[in-house]
Amino acid sequence: MNNFYTLIYLIREWKRSLPGGYFTEALSFRKNTLSLYFEQPKGQDEAHGNQFVMTFSSDPQRTALFMDRFQPPKRQNAATLFTVLSGAKLQSVELADADRFITFRFENNLRLIFLLYGNKSNVLLVNQNEVLEAFKKEDDWVGGDIPEPRPASSHKKTSDDLAKSVFSLNPLLPRPVVRRWIATALSSDIHPDELAERVQTFTESILEKAYPHIDDDYGFTIVNPKLLGSDEPRHFSSVNEGVAGRFYNIVRAQEFVSRKNLLVQKIERAADKIDRSLEELSNLDKSLIKADKFEENGHLLMSNPHISPENGKVSVEDFYNQGDVREIKVDDTVDLVQNANTYYEKARSARQSYKTAEQRTLTLNKKADVVAELLNTLNAVNYAKELDKWQRQNEEKLRQFGLTASTAGQSALPYRPVTIGGYEIRIGKNARSNDELLRITHKEDIWLHARGFSGSHVIIVMNRKTTMPPANIIESAGEYAAFFSKGKGSSLVPVIFTKKKFVRKPKGAAPGAVKVDREDVVLVTPKQPDTSGTEST
Hints:
Layout (H helix, E strand, L loop, with lengths): L3 H11 L7 E9 L2 E8 L9 E8 L6 E5 L10 E3 L8 E6 L5 E6 L3 E6 L6 E6 L2 E5 L3 H4 L20 H8 L5 H11 L6 H17 L4 E3 L3 E3 L17 H42 L3 H20 L9 E6 L5 E6 L6 H44 L4 H10 L1 H5 L5 H4 L6 E6 L2 E6 L2 H10 L5 E5 L7 E3 L10 H13 L9 E7 L3 E2 L10 E2 L3 E5 L9 E2 L2
């Protein structure tokens, strides 16, 4: 989706509709995804202007930029970027000569540069020759020089590897498609001069016309499928439509895998818990043996009520084992009849425990069968709609393990969101989620943590404002940081707070561990937030 030739056709399509639009806002609703909103001025016959959104993905598995279907943004849990561009008019859209380097030029010398480089993808806001803001790794970019397009190098040489030879002639060709082309149209003994001609012809055919389509073998491409030895599949009406369709197909597939894996993990944990419980109950016969022993001790004591204990013990003839003497522990502060009744009670209790354990074993074995069936049928599910149906059909069984359809597939945000006084508060869930929360936090956001106790990172989202939030907001967030820490049982807990830019993760540090370069302290009483709604302060 980010191949150079695909971008050529995207730019051609966008140039007909994007320039002249006004930037309104940029929002990030999820990791690695940015939505940029624009509005075209209304025409003479229009009551309202035309709104559109550009979606950018920096996920290495689905790097893409495309015009998306417009939907009013939901701002909850969204990060706001590039606010300095608000209201700026888009003047042109450009692609570098031979690099995946797209520029949106605005008035006042402002530019958005989209770098579509797989795991190095990013969006930069630049003014003349300086980077003002970055979508990702902002500390590495802001204040520095803007990057320059770097066309892929092309060396006119051949190789024993035919694919390497093709890419040496044109390194910008889409790799999965070229491998398919080589397999269907070229022979390994082709002469270097003929290979150069064939590569040139192949490149010219790509530039002549786009055939946006998706193939099971090589994914999305704009290359004519007939050149690849394929039947002509359904074409998209535009390259942008094809990129958008492919992107959301990948998103749905990844979300399905994530949902399914989460369910499998939870059910497997339930199975492990059942197995551990069954193992603990595996020695049921020992309870009956103990019960018989206790009862025998009671009978022997009742048969010898006048023997005097010595050092908390009595020795009596064991008529259950002829010729033996049994030593029985007793409480020498009471008589042997009372000691006998104590042993009878122990025997009764042991037999009751056996019955309870026997019933629990039966119940656990039934649950183990249910879990095995759930895992067996879940492993056969291959599509999102199948998974939805599977969850509906098994909702009663899932409920036995606290896994209703609504909770089993819920979003796995790395934090608990709370809103107080108009500020979004994000509370880490564990050490690893603390690291992820810190990673997605903007440098101007406020970071809080209970001093001297392990616990959750807490973030006050500032939406890139450089000011500090009101004292009551800091205090409320501090109360949450205290509650989600090992100090929650204390009446007062010191909580440190600072801007995220003064918090860093040392290389090789344990999950959740950070280094704070500058801090202030607030003394608070731990308080549990209402994570289901909005709190006022």
